[in-house]
Write a structure and sequence with these properties.
The protein is α+β, with helices and mostly antiparallel strands. It has four helices and six strands. It has one domain: Yope Regulator, Chain: A (2-Layer Sandwich).
Length: 176
């Protein structure tokens, strides 16, 4: 039974179970990141780690965060900021990329041009397991890496957003 925001699920609403589960989740996250060779660095003042990922198309900074509300958020950040004059076309490209994604979404900060891919999970009342962590982390970095050439082509090459996304979403030719 849920007791609403800040509750611990036992109806008394004191939040102790919520806080404890978030702390356990943070420990599990740190252990998984270490064991999976992500080389996490604890971020001061929050239940979060900074780490990195080297994909086929770029090296990206990643942030893995546990929120006190028993939420796990994983962000993969695009290494370059989008120039102000290219933010509208890039936002169109990201909207086109987001359409149909089953896990996660792209976000663009119009203020500074930062792009990130976010994958998240609400684990209220449940333990955050290695499988849940893996299934939140790997789709984020794989999706960002897949779409990154299209995003960069729109941001820095002036490519049409619809064409750029269509190119990366084309099915791979089969070997048959």
């Amino acid at each position: 039974m849920s007791s609403g925001p800040g509750g611990n699920g036992n109806g008394n609403g004191n939040g102790n179970g919520t806080k404890r589960n978030a702390e356990l989740a943070f420990q599990a996250l740190g252990k998984w990141l270490e064991e999976d060779d992500w080389h996490p660095v604890r971020m001061e003042g929050m239940l979060a780690f900074r780490t990195g990922f080297a994909g086929e198309n770029a090296r990206v900074v990643c942030v893995a965060e546990i929120r006190p509300q028993q939420q796990f958020l994983f962000y993969a950040l695009v290494p370059n900021k989008v120039p102000e004059e290219r933010r509208v076309p890039v936002s169109e490209a990201l909207t086109r990329a987001n359409w149909g994604l089953r896990i996660g979404n792209f976000e663009l900060d119009f203020t500074d041009g930062e792009i990130r891919f976010k994958s998240s999970l609400d684990f209220e009342g449940e333990l955050l397991t290695p499988a849940l962590i893996r299934n939140t982390v790997y789709p984020a970095v794989a999706t960002l890496d897949h779409y990154l050439p299209a995003i960069m082509a729109v941001a820095y090459g002036g490519k049409d957003p619809a064409e750029a996304i269509a190119e990366v979403e084309k099915p791979e030719p089969s070997d048959s």
